[in-house]
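Homework help thread (please don't just give me the answer)

Our assignment gives two proteins as sequence + structure token strings and asks us to describe the second one. The first is just a warm-up. Here they are:
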Amino acid sequence: MGTAFTISGIRPVLLSHVYPPGEELEWVAGAIRSWDAALVEVTLSDGSTGIGEVGAGIMAASAVPGIVEALRRYAIDQTFAHPLEVGDRLRSYTAFWSRGGISSGVVGAIETAALDAVAQRESAPAFELLGGLKRYRIEAYASGGLGSSFEHVAQWADAQVTSGFRTVKFRAMKDPDTTISLLEHVVPRLPSRVRFVIDAVQASASHPWSVDDAIRVGLVAEKLDALWFEEPCFATDLAGYAKVSDALRITVSGIESNSTLEEFIRLFELKGVGLAQPDVSIVGGPMNFQRVANLARDYNVGCVPHVWGSAVTFSANLHAALAHGHVNLFEYCTLPNPLREELLVEPIQLIDGCIKAPTGPGLGVRVDPDIERKFAFSAGAGHVIR
């Protein structure tokens, strides 16, 4: 049938995994009491269905259904020659209100779902519709390290090394001095062959550090030979990014919450990062992910996807990464999250620290009535920054 299709239906699918009492994910910014996922299901006129995810849904899932409804009139009964046309078409008609933010994530989820549906219909892995495999496996790094104590973070890092990861990423504490102490506690315990990343979490989320403090932490990370220093400034502080990058020899990375191509262009022009972290589920879909990766290559900037969601976000970014020659490392959140494992058709194959390319059709995810019942949405929790 080829890649052409007509969309006949779109619906939001909100899911939650509520952690039992005592098993919440504790970290310095609060407790994650449930892992939420805001998915979008697309149905084609031939009955094929596919799934996409809105990355911001981990924090704001309740906002997604209304945006899906607003986009419906621009997608239903529309015919496309290829799934990668979907995002641009929707953005062209909604430029008055969908230029970025969570709206961009919803547009990208519709494009991702269309990609999944067409690839399943054609019995091909999604990466085949993204230009084909550029590698048969990709190295993954362990991402987590949310502990509220130094020892908790250190024990998590030890467990990742035991599992076979060669790179671990853990999160900063709320203030720069405690973060420096965390680095000095955790890093010397790592085996010499293991690399580390420190994620300052927009340095640090609701109460960002000064640029001078970010540089101070970065210099310690540099001394300890960090692979990169992630998001040392608030997401909108591009001048701060440029100053931190200029002051350090190690790579500065970001900005995972950038939801438009234009935001990445400006970041690159200001030499704010040496490593870009786009996310298919945030930046507007797989087409925009490819564009950011292309720009990163042209600006001599690295590119590693941000991946923090259900199996849908994981798989969408994995297929996009495997299909792009400039991406050679992949984020693997190892925090307990059944919305990752139970939505996958095939389990993740981690061998020698690398993820093998999936072989099944589409993205390799499933959302059926049993999944929707088991993970019924529970409003009011999710990721909450304190």
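The one we have to describe:
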Amino acid sequence: MKKIMILLAFTLLLFGCSERPENTPDAVEAEVVVNENIIAVVNGDEIELEVFDKYYAMQSYDFEKEFGESIWDIEQDGKTMREIRQDQTLDYLIRVNLIEAYLKEKGESISTSVINDAYSRYMDSIKNDEEIKAYFAANGLDEVFLKRFLEDQYYLRTYEDLLLEEISNDPNALDYLFKDKIIRYKTRHILLEDQVSVDEVSSLLNDEENPADFSDMARLYSLHSTSAVKGGDLGYILVGNMPAAYEEVALTIEPYTVSEAIQTEYGYHIIFVDDRQMLQDMIDAGMPEEEIETYKGDIIQNYAAQETVRFFEEMKAGATIELHKELLNKEQSNDE
């Protein structure tokens, strides 16, 4: 069954030029009288419950299709999946509001013609998909809303692109990322399920008289089948792409020594580091310039993604935000 994949589809459709309007005025903090149809107020801008419902529907379709309607009542960390998705939708709407205001102050905008063109192309792409069109109609996802959503995606993408460009052209940021910094590391690991297994394998690896070979132990004991057949070898891994606990060991343990077991969401890992490389090490080893640039680009992208989140959290912390989530409970009671 075809999924909507709206976020990706809309993002890919936006390749138009931007236009520069006059800067918008600063947000004015003021006391706002909120009625029963307002789910949130962000720096004085009201977000209506009807708007929230449409975004919630947009972001829930694929999830419900994959797991069924009963998924919403399943609890995780003390909240139902419905409550978690409601929180995610509210956070998305707050993010869009703050980022759009920030970019408009910087003179960013998108032309109506670009939005119209993207909308036409998207609707043409689903013209034979009756299920998606029926879902849109049932949830009020009409032309006005979909064009609004397209505009949201433009601002979110522009925000990310501007930050990426800023980091890419900032000598201080590049020094921070690349100067005397490990870029990638090569490790082997043994993934185990419980502490009993850890104790057994560790004792064999650390036997003073006849220590077991790490690769042999990985083949015999590791639960990670794809690396186990290669003696636990994970190959070279770009910094930032492994769980934090794993990476901390990979970046600090003495090479060619067996680590203490550490725990991640996947289980217990015993780690052996074969190599760590800085940018200059990769150049000295004769790595092609194109490959070097790919590594650098990936690292800048990872850092920009972290900075995107951090900067948004700063904007959020400095904003005046009122939430009226009690309306969600009232609406749910009415539906029942």
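TA reply:
I won't write it for you, but here's a hint about the kind of observation we're looking for: Residues 45 and 97 are 8 Å apart (CA to CA).
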